[in-house]
Amino acid sequence: MSSTDPPTAVGDAPTLTARRLDGLGDRVFGSRPASDGDGSARLDVFAPATDERIGSVPACDADDVDAAVERARGAQEAWAETPAEERARIVNRFGDLVADRREELLDVLQVETGKSRRTAVEELFDVPTGCSYVASEAPDALAEERRRGIAPGVTTATVTREPVGVVGVISPWNYPLTLSMADAIPALAAGNAVVIKPDEKTPYGALLLAELLEVAGLPDDLFQVVTGEGPTVGPPLIDAVDYVAFTGSTATGRTIAERAGRNLIGCSLELGGNNPLVVCGDVDADEAARGAVQACFSNVGQLCLSAERVYVVESVYDEFLDAFVRETESLTLGTGYDYDADLGSLVDADQLARVESHVDDARDRGATVETGGRARPDVAPYCYEPTVLTGVEPDSTVACEETFGPVAAVTPVPDAAAAVAAANDSPYGLNASVWTGDRERGAELAREIDCGTVNVNDAFLATWGAVDAPMGGFGDSGLGRRHGPEGIRRYTETRTVGVSRVGPLTFPERIPTDWFVRGAFAAMRVGRRARRSVGAVRRRLSRR
Ligand code: NAD
């Protein structure tokens, strides 16, 4: 659509027009209109709620990626020299703008993902929260640090942190705002430029955020968006940048890691999961069922932290299952731009086919569908009912692979220890949830579960929302961590500066070498003893 066409409504979104979306598409290649590039290849974008085409964005190629990275690199040097406090101010302003412009952002999110407005607003809360944390933490996380020298008074050691340069962010479609910004904002705060490749299904959220970053005062060219197919845009991006932050499937994550490894650049990989939820025998079954509904069906299960395997101690199994099915059946489906519906649509036909095939496979192997188990084209083309399965065979696809849809398999287990063993029987290790009447016991069980985040009496927000604490996966669920100071420092190179206060550290000329060696080992023994005592006192104090 050209800019002279009259605005047409997109879906039912009240404030969005096709012209607005095309205008966002023109932001690819910095602020130049797409037609200044070769402009020929474009990717159509569809609204999952209606399956209508809502616009198109440039299908970038390797040359476009190189040009975007070059521009970003040109802007990065001055940004690295900008004081961390000033960078943090821009991050904070951006967070405020996201909150102020929430209605338009919510419309964009809904139109390109098909999610309900309730889910969209949960996602939107996350961006300003993350910005506030990064803005307050980054200056300290990046500050110079004094470390112990060789021996007191002999040398000093100071660690400085420098930005790596240009960070490539490759993000998925399920939470396009939060999963772009959770990686991009700390990278910018640490003094880097960012080139982001959003998923081809959901480019508009990242493009609108690029606009808001500019309004917030981010210098030109520092944040670039390259739209296009993953296998076309991803490899040249990894070849051109200094670090890659990837969120997506485990299969793609492996190819990213291989390429980053060849280039000897750092990478963080936030990958898939097949997350367990454990219900202990001492639980309030109604409360656990409400929590399980949130854990399993938020964003119709298209959430990396979603629980898909539910292990329930036998003594509460019947009571829990009744409550879980009842709560699941009370969920409402819809794609309106209001807060009426709990759940929206799956993202596309492929995702619907995946969910259907996992449920059909479980059913064919004898599983019972307690509720759900069918598509709802009457609501939207890719809607699927939240589904509870029991009697799922351990080798069913739904038990072994990530469904990434609204499907939960509930299995009885004799006790909490068996639940933990079942929870750990997976190559993944992203997120887990434990429900119990005894919080302390819950925290103990949590320490036995092999996942990067474990929530006690909560679905996932207790850990995801704790932005000061690291977040990431064990095993096939990833590498590296976002959030916390480590989520900022991953985008830096450390430099250790050692200064000698006594001249060259070599054998002294005026002392016989054998005397010196004897003295040095004696001093070392005293130093090691002193360090052990100080460490023990420190540990004792920290336990108080
Ligand atoms: P995907 O791996 O297919 O795509 C993710 C991104 O990678 C997209 O931008 C895509 O275009 C790009 N891509 C695809 N092929 C590429 C290639 N060869 N080189 C470079 N980039 C490429 O993921 P998906 O299936 O669309 O997303 C869902 C998956 O993401 C699920 O497995 C989910 O669990 C996972 N996920 C993980 C987290 C987390 O934080 N751990 C968060 C959200 C989603």
What does this structure look like?
- This protein is α/β, with parallel strands linked by helices and 544 residues long.
- It folds into two domains: 18-271 and 485-489, Aldehyde Dehydrogenase, Chain A, domain 1 (3-Layer(aba) Sandwich); 275-467, Aldehyde Dehydrogenase, Chain A, domain 2 (3-Layer(aba) Sandwich), CATH 3.40.309.
- The protein has 18 helices and 20 strands.
- It has helices spanning 18-25, 62-81, 84-100, 102-113, 117-142, 178-189, 204-216, 230-240, 250-263, 285-297, 314-329, 349-364, 397-400, 416-423, 439-446, 461-464, 484-489, 513-543; strands spanning 42-47, 52-58, 145-147, 155-163, 166-170, 193-197, 223-225, 243-247, 266-270, 275-279, 307-313, 368-371, 387-390, 407-413, 428-429, 431-435, 453-456, 474-475, 478-479, 492-500.
- The protein is globular, with a radius of gyration of 26 Å.
- Nicotinamide-adenine-dinucleotide (NAD) binds at residues 170-174, 179, 197, 199-200, 230-231, 234-235, 247-249, 252, 255-256, 270-273, 304, 402, 404, 430, 473, 478.
